[in-house]
Amino acid sequence: MPRLLLAAVPFPATARAVSGTAPGDGPGEGAAEALTRLARALRDAGHEVVHAGQGVDDGLVVAAAVQEDVEVVVLLAPASYDAGELAARLAGEDPSDGAETTVLVVATTDEQPAQVVRRVAAGTAVAVADDTPGDPLGGG
After folding, report:
1. 91 near 101, Cβ under 8 Å?
2. pTM for the whole thing?
């Protein structure tokens, strides 16, 4: 199983304006609970999970991915998050050193942990259709 880095980018203030709370402000409300659910699901699937935390920026994600020598970065982000720059920075690692490319998987709090686990196992950042009932990452 690949070693992976799990992190969450900051969620925009609009999340607070719409719901009255920001992700992570209460039970079932956000990123903190979603990270916990996702970390548990990934560990249960046999992955070694390095937890980078909540509210981290792209620079920290790239630095941690290099330092921890991970194969996959799982990033919890709002649906509006543009992962293009982060993906480019992760792909910018020196391929001549024999290291494999770091795969970026972006998840939202609306996704079920099982969906993300399957995407990680498949080694792809492409969304997988899933009709499996269960709790979404956000618990709602």
Report:
1. yes
2. 0.73
Which amino acid is residue 39, in one-letter code?
Answer: A
Structure tokens that stand for 16 in this block: 């607070």
- Token pair for 132: 């499996």
Cβ atoms < 10 Å from Cβ of 12: 14
Given this model, what pLDDT does residue 126 score? 42
What number of CA atoms fall less than 13 Å from residue 2's CA on the CB side?
Answer: 24
- Give CA angle at 31 (15, 7), nearest 5°: 125
| Domains along the sequence of the chain with CATH | 3-122 (3.40.50.280)
Mind listing the pLDDT tens digit for each residue in 54-113? 899 999 999 999 999 998 999 998 888 888 889 888 887 554 555 566 888 998 888 889
Closest CA to 69 of 84, 55, 48: 48
